[in-house]
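Entry 14. Ran structure prediction on the chain below.
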Amino acid sequence: MTKIETNRAPEGGRMRAAGTRAVRPRNAATLIIVRRDRKTPQVLMGKRHSGHDFMPNLWVFPGGRIDRSDFRAPFATDLRPEIAAKFEAHIPAARGRALALTAVRETWEEAGLLLAKAAPARPTLGPWRDFVAQGVAPDLEGLEIVARAVTPPMLAKRFDTWFLMADAERLVSLERKPDCGELEEIAWVDFDEAIALPLPSVTRTVIGEAIQRLEDPSRPRPFMRFGAGNVRLSHL
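Output, structure tokens:
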């Protein structure tokens, strides 16, 4: 494991109260959607609302924390065996699939875009009713794992986030629903433009990883654990 020193302060989050114990990171997932129908590849980015207490006003990929319903959600296609095995090497199999479903659900809720295929209607719960209503279910087959990161212990709100990636051609449509939920804005931008946006440092790092993974799908996947002034780097 490599320890990387950094002088950057953690972005966009409240510090935990002095004398209190570090909170346990919540399981979360986010989705990097790459569009290849332009001269250069583009990535979907969204701007978080100024009123959020975690990463306000910063540009991020759509994503969020896992929900209980994600463990029971229907899906049209499953994770490829090698991706499922990568999850299972670090977390229970059921949680790995649930995190993939989290990324798909959050992309729908935040950006109004469905990574899905036509599928028979099945009884389902809560936020997944939107998928059933449209006659589709999540398409997990095209998902790749790019990275994993855990936010630092000095923050009041922490996440253990898996960064996943999929091609935009797997979306039901490039036209999003009018209300994009938590994200104030969404945009398709070139990777160079994405890096120039106001970003959390981890998002900037993951954009670089995504660029390199598009060129070399066999490259190691980083696992970053952020601490007080340093990052512990290993690989998945």
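The mean pLDDT is 83. Will compare against last week's run tomorrow.
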